[in-house]
Design goal:
The chain is mostly helical. The chain has a domain of 95 residues. The chain contains 5 helices and no strands. Helix 1 packs antiparallel against helix 3. The two termini are 54 Å apart. The relative contact order is 0.06.
Length: 179
């Protein structure tokens, strides 16, 4: 029997755990903006090669003295084509930059939350030990106590939900709801 091999996990991203997130100032979305239904735009996405080659083609068409004579009235005017493609590639570049930044944000968020939650994991047992010795600790750090109690609250709610569903199933309610 062949031994099962597991994929090697990727190394931790190179993110400075102490780095504060940057202040972001995004331009406002124009008033009255209504999102389009993107399903009507499926298939209208440029290929990477088109995006890469577009700047040269735009320059070529914009500088051409013979575009209209060569292609005639059956094609969009040069100015219209240049304007439409220039705006389209500008939006593509904005999206590419935002997606790259979003990947950076996701990595920084994951790394810093892991560190923060590990810190809380170390603090929790010590807090509970101190609380057992001195109940006033809870009044000194009420928000911290609530924060450390979140996993316990979630666990209790899960147990209560499972018990409620079990009782409902035993009572013959297939939906698992009790009235």
């Amino acid at each position: 029997m062949k031994a099962e091999t597991r994929p090697t996990p990727s190394p931790a991203p190179a993110v400075d755990r102490s780095l504060e997130p940057p202040e972001l100032t995004l331009p406002p979305i124009p008033p009255g903006f209504v999102p389009v239904n993107l399903k009507y735009y499926r298939g209208f996405h440029p290929k990477a090669g088109q995006v890469a080659l577009l700047p040269d083609a735009i320059k070529e068409v914009a500088a051409s003295q013979t575009y209209a004579a060569t292609f005639g009235a059956a094609v969009p005017p040069a100015a219209s084509l240049v304007r439409d493609l220039t705006v389209a590639v500008a939006w593509t570049n904005v999206r590419i930059q935002l997606e790259a930044f979003l990947e950076y944000v996701r990595c920084a968020e994951a790394v810093t939350w892991k560190e923060g939650l590990l810190d809380l994991g170390q603090l929790g047992p010590v807090f509970q030990l101190l609380l057992a010795q001195n109940p006033k600790v809870a009044s000194q750090f009420p928000a911290l106590k609530r924060l450390l109690d979140v996993p316990k609250v979630i666990s209790r709610e899960g147990v209560a939900t499972r018990n409620r569903k079990r009782r409902a199933k035993a009572a013959g309610d297939p939906s698992g709801e009790t009235g």
